[in-house]
Amino acid sequence: MKFALAVYGAPANSQAPQSALHFARAVVAQGHEIVRLFFYQDGVNTATAIAQPPQDEPDLPNEWQVFIQEHELDAVVCIAAALRRGVVDQAEAERYQLSNHNLRAGYELSGLGQLLDGALMADRLITFGA
Amino acid sequence: MKTLHTVNKSGQPMALCLRAVATGDSVLLIEDGVYELLSSGKKIEALPDDCSLYVLDVDARARGVSLPEHIKVIGYDDFVALAVDHDNVLSWF
After folding, report:
1. Is A21 helix (H, G, I), strand (E, B) or coil?
2. Quick check: pTM over 0.90?
């Protein structure tokens, strides 16, 4: 079965990225397919490369990136939500003449249409709200 | 058409969920939604008799919420299986 997952909460103030990662691991372990991950609203903070959680806490952004790359998942970060929160890739950094970019490898900035596309592609869309 | 409703907070998300549940649906309490088990059970008691109530094991244990016997306690593997078994999933948050 095909799953799409949407994550609306940030690692620092919501359990959504953690719950979604546990769920995603169980989906893959049962032989199902994840056709789209969509990080929306504060969920875009999951994709920043420069957040440093305390060393005695799980590093969720890193765990998510490893999971995405290991399974070669289609991970989309909402571009509008990301730009307003300071999560940018190289192209957006150049467009807005920013000195740095911080989107982790494995993610792609794109529009909200990709959430709808994921919902249409998948048999089930599971939303992890903030 | 069976729907799995996930509820991740008590209060309004649970109240809205209860307005939407239909015969044969299931409700799964996750994250802070497990606190619904502490609130004298009034909202949960409003669930139709033919709706199943589930609670995510790790989230209940992380919050020290004791689990009544009539509630089905499940893990993430079961969560995925429930999503497969229902026709769609609605998340209340």
Report:
1. helix
2. yes
